[in-house]
Amino acid sequence: MSLVGFRHSNCIVQEQLRFDTQERQVKAGAWILMIALGLGQTVGAAPAGFQSHQGIVETAQRFLAEQAAAAHSGKVEASIGRLDSRLRLKRCGAPLEAFLPAGARLSGNTSVGVRCPGPTEWKIYVSGKISVFGQVVVASEPLLRGEAVGEAQLRVVERELSGLSYGYFDRTDKLTGMLAGRAIPAGTVITPNMLSAPRLINRGDRVTLLTGSERFQVRMRGEAMSDGTRGERIRVKALNSQRVIEGWVVSRGVVKVTL
C-alpha cells in the first residue's frame, strides 16, 4: 500500500471513531433525561391509581380536631403524624371516612383510623396527638420543705395538661396553709403529692369535743389520742367519762364527735 492510501484509510477510521463517540454521548444524554423525567413524576403527586397521602392526613386531621373540640372545653390542638413515604394504597372511589379505633384516647398521644368504603376497600391507622390546655397553679417562687404555702407564693398559668398525670390544681385558694412536702422550684406545677395538710391536732393535746346539731351543741373537754389534719378521723378521750370515741377534726383543737 502506498503512503497516500495508508493516510486515507487512517482518516476514515478516525472519522468513524468520532461518530461512534458522539452517538454514545447522545444516547447517554437521552437516558439521563429519561431518568430525570421519571424521578420528577415520582416526587410530585401520587402515582396514577394510588391514594394521595395528603388526602389521608387531611381526613384524619379534620376528624381528630372535631373529636377533640367535642371532648374538651377551652383550648385544644390536634395534629397528625407523617405517613411512610413507601405507603401505596389504591385510590378510593368514594370520600374517605375517619374513625376512632377501640381504646383510642382523646388527649395526649392517640391514633385515628382512615378507611375507604369502596369499591376497593382498605383501612389504615395513623398516629396523632391531642394537646389540651388549661389553667394550673405553679409556684411563683421557690418553696422550702415543710413551709406553709401562702397565696402570694402561687400563680395561675396556662399549660398543656396531657402530661400532668399526677394531677394539678386550678385555684390557689385551695392550697393556702398547706405544707410543702419537698423543695419546690419556682415555675413548678403544683401536684397533690407535693403538699400535705397542716397538722391541727397533736396526740396528747387538750381538745374541745363538739356534738349535737347546728341549733343545739354540747361542748366538752377531751384529749387527742392521735394526730390529725382537717377532716381526718381521729380517736379522742372524753375527760368527764374517760370514754374513748372517734371524731373528725374541724379546726385547730376542735373535734366533732357523735355520742
TrEMBL record:
Protein localization: Periplasm
Family in the record: Belongs to the FlgA family.
Name of the protein in its database record: Flagella basal body P-ring formation protein FlgA
GO BP term, example: bacterial-type flagellum assembly
Domain of life where this protein originates: Bacteria
GO CC term, one of those recorded: periplasmic space
Lineage: Bacteria, Pseudomonadati, Pseudomonadota, Gammaproteobacteria, Thiohalobacterales
General function of this protein: Involved in the assembly process of the P-ring formation. It may associate with FlgF on the rod constituting a structure essential for the P-ring assembly or may act as a modulator protein for the P-ring assembly.
Species in which this protein is naturally found: Thiohalobacter thiocyanaticus
Keywords: Cell projection, Cilium, Flagellum, Periplasm, Signal
Entries under Pfam families matching the protein: ChapFlgA (PF13144), ChapFlgA_N (PF17656)
CDD domains, per the entry: SAF_CpaB_FlgA_like
Domain SAF: start-end pairs: 134-196
InterPro entries from the UniProt entry: Flagellar_FlgA, FlgA_N, SAF, SAF_FlgA
